[in-house]
Amino acid sequence: MEKLKIVKEAKGNDTVTRTIRMNGKTFDKINSLAEKNDISFNSVVNQIIEYGLQNLDENQ
Questions:
Q1: What is the DSSP string of the chain?
Q2: Would you kindly state where each structural domain of the chain is located, as residue ranges?
């Protein structure tokens, strides 16, 4: 499986606002990635979710 690469992307207009909860360590890791890559926290979260969905084993 190819590793996730965080990239700067153009913002899309098709968005949905939703509140989620995550543990503090996960928040800190995502926030650190966002700062290192000079992109928004939200962009990192969306890239992680897309990567996970594309690499999901649907045979479970």
A1: -PPP-----PPPS----------HHHHHHHHHHHHHTTS-HHHHHHHHHHHHHHT--TT-
A2: 24-53
Burial class (CB in 10 A: 0-12, 13-18, 19+), 3: exposed
13: pLDDT strictly greater than 80: no
Structure tokens at 36: 């290192």
The Cα–Cα gap between 58 and 1 comes to 15
- Answer for the pair 33, 6: CB distance below 8 angstroms, yes or no: yes
pTM of the model: 0.83
